[in-house]
Design brief:
Number of helices: 7
Number of strands: 7
Helix content: 25-40%
Largest sheet: 4 strands, antiparallel
Structural class: alpha+beta
Length: 277
Amino acid sequence: MSPGNGADPRAGHQLFDLFDLYNRRYFHRTLRPSEGFGLRYTQSGRQLGRFRYCPESHRDEGIDLAARLQDHPRALRSAMVREMIPMLGLQRYRETGDTTFLDRSPLYGHLFIEPGIGAFFLAQMEHLNVSFPELCLTIKPRFGSGSLFEQNRIPSARLMIVWVDNLRDRGVIYRLHDRATTDWPQLQDTAERFHGTRHISVLRVAGALAEQYAMLKKDNLPRSRAKSPELEDFALTVREIQDHRLTAEVPPVQRNLSQQSVSEQLSRWTPEAYSGY
């Protein structure tokens, strides 16, 4: 076993210590990783964990874990154990040839969510949750959600609220990039360009509340194919965010002309500006 490509060797070895501990505690040492199996932290966005394997040889390749989990040891434990379940299913398939362990398709009489989350996965998850309630395993875990996360270690975030259609009570919500400026004219331009309105507001919220929304790039434009969908019952959604104890309104700030660069000022001047001379 190895720490995995691109991983800090020290972090990789720490992950293997945890893997061995969880394999012993929760799986009775059942898991036997393939040669070359790796564990690593990755910048995986919303995904907390991912089990990787070769579809041709059915050998384990590794488990990727979100680097953000390093500040949340209980959530890290839950994410790793969750990815050890499909690893166990693959091992059972190698031993028996029974494809039901892979949860590729629905099994009659059993719940099926999607490929990889079917009868075997759900049964193992339920067994682990009953036997070890501290795991709090879920079908699709979300960063910051639940008691496993140290909420004081999750930085706050900014949300742009775009009121698209007040009559139909529809709108969209974007998360601002952590390193982007709260440039109101730029944000209004983005709202108008992609949603046909300049009616926006900006809220600073607890980081966990912002996880479900599409993030804008540092230039305050949506990522390719990441235009946020319109939400129904929009006023209620916004009210629930506003009512959170850590939510604060970000007041609109128009940049002072004297603070703009010369090129920005020139780009806004027109011949009419000289009519008084």
